[in-house]
Design goal:
Belongs to the ComF/GntX family. The protein has 228 residues and is of the alpha/beta class. It is built from 10 helices and 6 strands; from the N terminus they run ααβααβααβαβαβαβα. A 4-stranded parallel beta sheet has the order 1-6-5-2. A two-stranded antiparallel ribbon has the order 3-4. The longest helix has 13 residues. It is globular and about 45 Å long.
């Protein structure tokens, strides 16, 4: 890998999510027939997510973790630009239908410790490439939550309940906008759901999700992924 770009060898190893994929949750589909006429997986047909659509650049696997984890935990902020470029390419059609970019927020103590929000860095990169405005502090985590990685889907949903709101004074920037919500990884969707509901409550016209990587179908199967 070279700075800001992928070398040929890296491209061969990367598992990028391309068509066919689920229009609603972004998961890779094994074939077009599984998505039907709406390009929607069975889980999303049965229990639609609270957001409008989702896209991911990569499958979340050993390869994509080599970009995402150093960005999150090891100060490799240069990886945000690499990921933003791939995310923008993956979401080319989606970007025609959004008007504002917003990152998933970090709680203040985690932000102080890390010194940056990796989702905000990627959101700013996407906004520059797509020519869209970005409000990096539109959303606020109002309480600390446990690290979600080791929690079940149900535990994640309960942990994120009432944990996110639109920051005071930012409601006018959200009202009437088609919001693109940016994060690093989409797993069960509990964080994305909490953010989406906060944005819709503030008057957003719609919310679409764009992430660097999407986990596999084992997560999608859980009904806690969707609004009940």
């Amino acid at each position: 890998m070279t700075e800001g770009a992928f070398c040929g060898t890296c491209f061969q190893a990367a598992h990028r999510i391309v068509s066919p994929c689920c229009h609603r949750c972004g998961v890779q589909l094994e074939n077009e027939g599984l998505g039907g006429s709406q390009s929607c997986c069975a889980a999303c047909q049965a229990h639609p997510p609270v957001w409008r659509s989702a896209r991911a650049a990569f499958v979340y696997d050993a390869w994509s973790r080599r970009l995402i984890l150093p960005l999150k935990y090891a100060d490799h902020t240069e990886n945000a630009a690499v990921l933003a470029r791939q995310m923008t390419s993956a979401a080319e059609d989606m970007l025609q239908n959004v008007t504002l970019v917003v990152p998933v927020p970090l709680y203040r103590t985690r932000l102080w410790k890390r010194r940056y929000n990796q989702a905000a860095l990627m959101a700013q990169g996407v906004s520059r490439l797509a020519g869209l405005p970005c409000v990096v502090d539109a959303l606020q985590r109002v309480r600390s939550t446990r690290a979600l990685a080791r929690l079940s889907a149900g535990e994640r949903a309960r942990e994120m309940e009432y944990a996110v709101r639109v920051r005071k004074g930012r409601g006018r920037r959200i009202e009437g906008q088609a919001v693109l919500l940016v994060d690093d990884v989409l797993t069960t969707g509990s964080t994305a759901s909490a953010c989406t509901m906060a944005l819709m409550k503030a008057g957003a016209a719609s919310v679409d999700i764009l992430v660097a990587a999407r986990t596999g179908r084992v997560d999608e199967q859980n009904p806690r992924f969707v609004q009940e």
